[in-house]
Design a protein that fits this description.
By secondary structure, the chain is an alpha/beta fold. It has helices at 10-20, 26-31, 48-52, 58-68, 75-93, 96-111, 117-123, 131-141, 146-159, 164-174, 180-191, 204-210, 262-265, 286-307, 319-328, 343-356, 368-373, 381-394, and strands at residues 249-254, 270-277, 311-314, 333-337, 361-365. The structure holds flavin-adenine dinucleotide.
């Protein structure tokens, strides 16, 4: 197996986590910025596809690492995991930023010629050392090292002067871990929109240093002037999910937003049946679809065994099919893990009234990790980071 192949499913994610845990201390902190290129291990965990679809949760990753290392030794790794939690919370408190990205992307797509600079960037045919290889690596493998993602986004925006939303869209269509919050907000951070005025400039020296001299691109932009946009507005309160009625027979709806539903639903509802939706319409690219399809089959087998109920796996679902699945198992309630901002949340918002008209309620259960951390994603990462030790204590990590 090359390191850039990601074995689907929770058990493969747990194997990867267990293999990584011994390296989560000093080795990670000192080596994480180096991108050794495709096919080489490097210091990072490559857990992102499993974490993205919650085959393995942030809480499990942090628990495994802190069982082996002191908080001081694992501080850097835990902070990186918490970057994901922070991005998810930040977008949850400002859902309009996702809507704005989708609108910008659609407008740019309509106005940009599909040939020329955009096509050359996506095909890895710009002549820029490193950048072209990363474009091809992304398409071929579905993954890039974090530093390569930063260099790529910076060169896309400041050297090639292409619209950031189309770069974010290119990533969404190819990353196996494509995620509404982590991807959109990271691109915005590079562009100087997320922390207004603060941009990320990729330099030849930095690229050469952290690629072990493989690349030293010439002609990169020498300055990165922040992009501007209308104000985003302040953070809203975290929405309260509609909790399930534990006495009602329920259909468990599983989506790519949480493929380990038994750890959040067990005890909250009487599960009479389940439908696992691989979500072809809710994902942006074929690499992600392939990973989720294969993972969904394993999730279905697990929840069938846990709840002793029939489980269907489908590629997509609409309100009528969901209602039929609920009726087939005698459920008057559909229960699903909370879906954060993105296409699944949009679909659920459409399903709820259609189900309600037929007397079926849609209830969601949010993970305690999210409820604990997300409300603190009101400002930048650094004030959030200050709270991490206290919040980890509240979460039960001494
Ligand atoms: C422009 C850009 C786009 C990105 N798009 C995505 C995306 O769509 N989906 C996605 O999951 N990540 C995204 N990231 C974040 C990051 O690059 C990946 O999560 C990381 O490369 C995953 O590698 P790893 O699992 O080896 O991480 P490790 O370094 O081993 O970290 C462990 C886990 O922490 C989380 N994490 C680490 N760094 C970050 C970070 N900077 N932001 C958010 N979470 C982090 C991931 O879940 C990761 O699996 C993006 C970053 C940039 C700069």
């Amino acid at each position: 197996m090359t390191t850039t192949q990601f074995l689907p499913g929770r058990s493969a994610g747990l194997d990867r986590l267990n293999a990584f845990v011994p390296r989560a201390g000093h080795g990670y902190a000192t080596g994480r910025n180096t991108d050794p290129g495709p096919g080489a291990d490097g210091a990072v965990s490559r857990l992102s596809p499993h974490v993205r679809y919650r085959l393995v949760t942030e809480a499990e990753v942090v628990a495994a690492v802190l069982a082996r290392h002191s908080q001081a030794a694992a501080e850097k790794f835990v902070q990186e995991v918490l970057w994901r939690t922070y991005w998810k919370g930040w977008l949850e408190l400002r859902p309009g930023v996702w809507t704005r990205f989708c609108e910008d992307r659609d407008r740019q797509r309509d106005s940009m010629p599909t040939t020329g600079a955009l096509a050359a960037a996506e095909a890895g045919a710009t002549g820029i050392d490193g950048f072209d290889d990363w474009a091809r690596e992304l398409v071929a493998t579905g993954w890039l090292h974090n530093h390569a993602r930063m260099w790529f986004a910076s060169i896309w925006i400041f050297t090639l002067r292409l619209p950031w939303a189309l770069g974010a869209d290119f990533f969404l269509r190819h990353l196996v871990d494509a995620d509404a919050a982590s991807n959109t907000l990271s691109w915005r951070w590079v562009a100087g929109l997320q922390t207004p005025g603060k941009t990320y400039l990729a330099t030849a020296d930095n690229i050469a240093r952290y690629t072990d001299g493989r690349y030293a691109p010439q002609g990169l932009a020498q300055e990165a002037v922040a992009l501007v946009e209308p104000p985003v507005g302040s953070a809203a309160a975290l929405p309260m999910p509609a909790a399930p009625d534990p006495r009602r027979a329920s259909l468990l709806l599983v989506t790519p937003e949480d493929l380990h539903p038994e750890s959040v639903i067990a005890g909250a509802a009487v599960v009479a049946g389940a439908v696992v939706v691989a979500g072809d319409d809710w994902l942006w690219g074929d690499t992600a679809r392939g990973f989720v399809h294969a993972s969904a089959a394993e999730t279905a087998a697990r929840i069938g065994a846990q709840f002793g109920c029939p489980v269907d796996v489908v590629s997509r679902i609409d309100a009528a099919a969901l209602l039929a699945a609920a009726r087939a198992c005698g459920a008057t309630q559909v229960v699903t893990p909370y879906a954060p901002v993105g296409p699944v949340a949009d679909a659920l918002a459409q399903f709820a009234p259609a189900l309600a008209r037929e007397g079926v309620t849609l209830a969601t259960v949010r993970r305690s990790w999210d409820t604990l951390f997300w409300p603190h994603a009101t400002k930048g990462f650094f004030p959030f980071r200050e709270r991490i030790p206290a919040l980890l204590r509240t979460a039960g990590f001494a």
